């Protein structure tokens, strides 16, 4: 596992520098408007890009013949994504607190809750992305994710049109402590590892 | 212990079928897997390395069934070189060494560094800037730096100039000096395998047409050049392949089944393979 994480780290530093820079820029903008993008960029795009680069160089073919189990190959991508989210969290919180302390921009009232929610959304989206890509490969996986996002957008849009559905969901969320959001999302993320592993196995058989 | 044992291995893809492959590679031996492009060599290697599961049959490598979870640990004893290096192109050889140091329990950093030097591979140059020959040499250096007992190489010499090919074959010869080390090497360049191998397997359209010791093959088969009328007298069961020309018939025959009075020429491995493939067409 350590070898796979090291490999992903090197690849991120060399090939995904632009992505990391965008993440940093989003986290630096005072006021927190762009913070959601920091997490989404880190969690979804970096993980998906790493898998895409593995497919492109055919490292994934070689890795299956090296002393890594299929579970390690799958789990390493999750761990890379989680580490990315932690890095985004540290960068965002540190920078936004610096802005607040220096008087550049105050922290909003719901900053903590918002951060918890963003982490949760990032974890869920990362889990879905990784699961789909491991099953269908990067090219087909990306198409399916676009379709899924459009479908989810449609459902959320319909719920928004029916204001009571959305407010019921918001009330249910408000009853939970904000820390619960990322914890539940992390549990979901871990639960999808065996699903991704199975999907990857099915894809390798074809 | 055998290095590789394969029993009735099957794999079906749309438009392709690998049928009932069986063979045993003893420890310390070198097996050359020959076959045209698309014959199923890479599929067979993927099956042997557990990268994909079979539709039937079984394979074991260094005493471990490749379908069992323990095989992940066994792969610590196997060096793999695929037809392309398949390393992330943005990395360099030194970074790759650090990754493999965390991968293999017996990784030898000094051996790797000395191989990089011997093969004139720069440590800090990105792999994407390497030529194909350099990438293959890098893959070989990585495969030889963790005290592997078995090397599995899929078309390592394909598309390389003769000098690099020769260099790679020399390294492989060095590797096999120790008696407990085995090699499975696939190639469609038969002359490369003729230099190196103890055993030859010929895969043709997903079927294993031939598996035998190289020296026995060269001993057992011979070429005869006859007129059409004389060729009629050769027992049909002795003929493995025929080439008909303007001046008569050239055939690969089993030496033991042909009358000693008929002049039979010593044949090459390449001829044997070509005639076996032609025999299949006829």
Task: Walk me through what this model shows.
- The complex is a heterodimer of chains A (206) and B (282).
- Chain A has 206 residues and is mostly helical.
- Chain A has helices at residues 2-15, 17-28, 35-57, 59-63, 70-101, 111-161, 163-175, 180-205.
- Helix content of chain A is 85%, strand content 0%.
- Chain A starts with a helix and ends with a helix.
- In chain A, 35% of the residues are buried.
- Chain B is an alpha/beta fold and 282 residues long.
- Chain B has two domains: 2-205, Rossmann fold, CATH 3.40.50; 217-281, no CATH class.
- In chain B, strands 6-7-8-3-9-10 form a six-stranded mixed sheet, sandwiched between helices.
- Chain B is elongated, with a radius of gyration of 21 Å.
- The two termini of chain B are 39 Å apart.
- Chains A and B meet through α1, α3, α4 and α8 of A and α3 of B.
